[in-house]
Amino acid sequence: MNCLELAIPPLPQLVTIGHAFWPPGQKHETRSFDVYDMLFVLKGTLYMTEEGIPYEIKEGSMLVLEPGRRHAGHRPCEEITEIYWIHFVHPAPVRTMDSGKIPWSFPYVKGTNLDTAPQQQVMYIPKFTSLHIPDVLPFLERMVELHQALSPASSLPLQTQLAGLLVQLQAAAKMQYASRARQLCDQTIAYLQQHLTRPFDARHMEQTLHFRFDYLARCLKTYTGMSPLQYLHDLQIKKAKSLLENMELSVSEVGRQVGIENDNYFIRLFRKQTGVTPGRYRQIRNGKA
DNA sequence: CGGTTAAGCAACGGTCCCTA
DNA sequence: TAGGGACCGTTGCTTAACCG
């Protein structure tokens, strides 16, 4: 399934939302404008074409029309068709990606107290997919309600409902189409993040995730290129970097905080991953190099 | 003198490759 | 998929040098 990759921040901003029942014979107008148009079909079928590509949006499906593209209804509805539409503004998608190839667990660099701008991140929404309607309907209904009684008290909740809906769509894209190997890779990453400060224990990981260690390691390597231990070290060194930059802890204490008791080993590992020793790294980052 | 870093050594365990 | 073996990385320990 194709997903649109949108850069955040900023978060998408809602322009309008609507709920309608289209009678048989009604067809979407032909137009091109600079907002995203998200269409959810609850009953019936809507026929939409975008830049010459036809879509049949059946009951329980959604389609995202992109800004700046020409879209039109290429066939009238054949029955009473219940739809929700949402218009929101946001820069054009960075790219379109197959959901199976999205690096869902790629770790972002976290902001620190020295940063003055948010780190650039991305979000994904499915371009065209079927949905579990009970998951998204509460968001749609609440948004219509808030939009109808728009006021200073409801405008922020309305925008947060849109964000919640987008979270739901992203989660659906991730879960519905991820292979078992991909899911196991994500579970392994979650395990490593949760057990960051504990000594690595392959047997405990097997028992927790209910798969043989060999298989879990292979799944992880397929999508991250790293073994479990390598991935764990990557997480530990990232956390150590943050502690060195932002806390007044000794190198030994930083090592302990990230789960590496042995000073010597911590320094060697840090140097191997970053090319510099922990003390040197702190000097460089604090501008004392 | 204390904190940090480097290096050598040995034991252990993980990884990789091959075979059945 | 499992097991065996070679290789290599990790880990803990020790010693020593450097620096403020």
Set down the secondary structure blueprint:
Layout: E1 2-8, E2 13-22, E3 36-43, E4 46-50, E5 53-57, E6 61-65, E7 71-75, E8 81-89, E9 95-98, E10 121-126, E11 128-130, H1 133-148, H2 152-177, H3 180-194, H4 202-209, H5 213-224, H6 228-246, H7 251-257, H8 263-274, H9 278-285
Antiparallel strand pairs: 1-9, 1-10, 2-8, 3-6, 3-8, 4-5, 4-7, 6-11
Helix pairs in contact: 1-2, 3-5, 3-6, 6-8, 6-9
The structure holds a DNA duplex (20 and 20 nucleotides).
Key features of this structure:
Arc Repressor Mutant, subunit A, 2 domains, 5-stranded antiparallel beta sheet
Radius of gyration: 24 Å
Report the average pLDDT across residues.
Answer: 80
Question: What's the end-to-end separation, in Å?
Answer: 49 Å
Count of extended strands: 11
Number of H- or I-type helical stretches: 9
Tell me the number of structural domains.
Answer: 2
At CATH level 2, the architecture of the largest domain is Sandwich
Q: Name the helicity range.
A: 40-55%
Any idea what the CATH superfamily of the largest domain is called? Jelly Rolls
Report low-confidence residues grouped into runs of 5 or more: none
Largest sheet: 5 strands, antiparallel
Shape: elongated
CATH class of the largest domain: Mainly Beta
Helices and strands, in N-to-C order?
EEEEEEEEEEEHHHHHHHHH
Q: Which percent band covers the strand fraction?
A: 15-25%
